[in-house]
Amino acid sequence: MSCDYDQRTPPRRSAFSLVELIVVMVILGMLAGLVAVRTRGYLVNSRKNAVKTEIATILKSLETFRIDQGRYPTEDEGLQILSQPTDTWPEGFLTKVPRDPWKNPYLYFVSDDGCEVISLGADGREGGEGEDGDFSSEMLTE
After folding, report:
1. Which end of the chain is more exposed for a tag (fewer CB within 10 A), N or C?
2. What is the pLDDT of residue 66?
3. What is the SS3 assignment for 135?
4. C-beta separation of 100 from 137 below 8 A
5. This prediction's pTM
């Protein structure tokens, strides 16, 4: 006579429990939040660098205009005159007048000391900090 023992195999799990799924979702949510915060920081820095580069390009075009025309553009002419053709520069000093990374126009001011180009930042208003801060051509010389 053989002894048959009741050998039960452990029950097989066919799915994840609700608790396991919630834990995984919480972990994924935390990781997504961390990535979003870090990515935003990189985005802000890239926009700041783009503003500095565009202002430097505009300043070079303004200086070329001054050498060619013997003066800076007036505030009434604005930066738009840099994209208009002249006898010596048939394509203009700039191919087009850029807008800042927040799609706002650059501000242009002329004084006895020279000229200044300004971006008002993300909020489009004077003042502010971080991404909302103003970016000026004077910041490039500091």
Report:
1. N
2. 93
3. strand
4. no
5. 0.72
Q: Residue-wise over 41-58: b if at least 16 C-beta within 10 A, else e?
A: eeeeeebbeebeebbeeb
Element (H, E) at 136: strand 135-136
Superfamily of domain 50-141: Glycoprotein, Type 4 Pilin (3.30.700.10)
Residue that has been written with the tokens 């807008």 in this structure: 99
**Helix runs in the chain, H state only:** 18-69
Q: Is the pLDDT of residue 114 over 60?
A: yes
| Segments making up each domain of the chain, as ranges | 50-141
Whole-number Å distance between alpha carbons of 124 and 32: 30
Per DSSP, the three-state class of 11 is coil
C-alpha span between 125 and 142 (Å, rounded)? 23
